[in-house]
Amino acid sequence: MAPSKVLAGARVVLPTGTATDGRVIVDGTRIAGTAPRDAEIIDVRGHWLVPGFVDMHNHGGGGASFHGTAEEVLTAVRTHRLHGTTTLVASTVTADLDFLSRQAGLLSELAEQGDIAGVHFEGPFISPCRKGAHSEALLRDPDPAEVRKLIDAARGRAKMVTLATELPGGIESVRLLAEHGVIAAIGHTDATYEQTAAAIDAGATVATHLFNAMPQLGHRAPGPVAALLEDERITVELIDDGTHLHPASLRLAFRHAGAGRVAFITDAMDAAGFGDGRYVLGPLEVEVSEGVARLVEGGSIAGSTLTLDRAFQRAVTVDGLPVEDVVAAISANPARLLGLYDRVGSLEPGKDADLVLLDAGFRLKGVMRRGAWVVDPQLG
Ligand SMILES: [Zn+2]
Fold this sequence. Notes:
Residues 49-374 form the Amidohydrolase-related domain. The protein has helices at 70-81, 97-112, 144-153, 170-179, 193-202, 223-230, 247-257, 308-317, 323-337; strands at residues 5-14, 17-27, 30-32, 40-43, 48-51, 53-58, 60-61, 64-65, 85-92, 118-122, 158-163, 183-186, 206-207, 235-239, 262-265, 277-281, 284-289, 292-295, 355-358, 364-369, 372-375. It is of the alpha/beta class and 380 residues long.
């Protein structure tokens, strides 16, 4: 077994605050409380140590998608690991139910092996009025029996379903998901304020990419944005890529919800960590130009090419958010929501040694997952 390591001298972001000249002890795959005498000391002064990132909404990367083969799924997972995401939920997009059930089976096996943390179904139970980059022909109302069939196909590994709760069967489906311990996420929705509030009362706990693919805030029709922001039971997903949200909208949501109720996601598609060009998102063609993904037909934004290291740096340096709040939104909050906070989401003894090393400018300089370097530390 590899000797214990002590990463020493960094600013370490802990749940209780930031320790200057802090240290993290790694023993095997876990974080330890005390270091043995023969531990290897790694001097990381001038750097930040933060928990590995947790992405609960991600469709792919590295030229591959979560609709692909097991090998393609792993390519996407590895790509995001190189950017600090040590825990990732694989998201599907709208497709026919038989395909989604089969893909859920494949993804559940990868979840059992520990490669991914579970499955998120985005569509097909979403609103044709707010379909974004989902295939309209394949959308359907959220029939609880079909929702049940999908989550069963994931064999206990379904973590979240995004649905338009105002559609027929929406509220019953939210109840069903809540009963089965699967997150009901409100998104791609045309709901009113009142309809959104009813879905929250039925058990919905997440807003899928708040502001995107839903009616905007109006002074007489506050819509889902106000209902989702004001309810303490909701965590709001935000895509901080500079394209999906203006920094002021992001700050507004962040300040209103508070750092405890925000989850940064990528909503990444195949081009993340790969490059511009032609791709497909489910059955639809996408053109990625200067890092922005749009449907070839209609021009809707079609996911992002974001990685969470860029979201982290942007949140601190462009949006001006405190580092501790960014850590909450990018690690701790999603880990808690997914029921994984006993293992990941903070740098505490007993947890998996999943961590990200950042320099003073918040550039990624190292990634460790379960005690092994995924990106070797680049110091100096
Ligand atoms: Zn998505």
